[in-house]
Write a structure and sequence with these properties.
The strands form two sheets. A four-stranded antiparallel β-sheet has the order 3-4-5-6, with no helix packed on it. The radius of gyration is 15 Å and the shape is globular. The chain has a single domain, classed as 2-Layer Sandwich (Folate-binding fold). The mean pLDDT is 93. It has one helix spanning 35-43; strands at residues 2-5, 9-12, 17-21, 51-57, 65-71, 77-82. By secondary structure, the protein is mainly beta. The two termini are 25 Å apart. The chain contains one helix and six strands, in the order βββαβββ.
């Protein structure tokens, strides 16, 4: 599998590290009332079949954080964008 980094071009998978689901939103509150939201955020993940947005870090290259849209069934990469700040 090759990932097309916006800065470095197409690179081998070994240059990147998978860092998780790009669709998961961190709870805003740290109050006790948000405990269930934090449990869901930390422990519960979907395992989708088909297109999925993932965060990848280009650690052996430009150190960019990327949002990769990948088909989890075929491993085809459909899109690669720079990840939004604040994730």
């Amino acid at each position: 599998m090759r990932i097309n980094c916006p800065y470095c071009g197409a690179r081998c998978l070994e240059e990147f590290t998978y860092r998780g689901d790009a669709t998961v939103k961190r709870p805003e509150s740290i109050d006790e009332s948000a405990r269930d939201a934090w449990v869901d955020y930390v422990y519960l993940r979907d395992n989708p079949a088909g297109l999925h947005k993932e965060l990848w870090h280009h650690g052996a290259g430009c150190h960019s954080w990327l949002e990769v849209t990948r088909n989890t069934v075929t491993h085809e990469i459909v899109a690669v964008e720079l990840a939004a700040k604040g994730r």
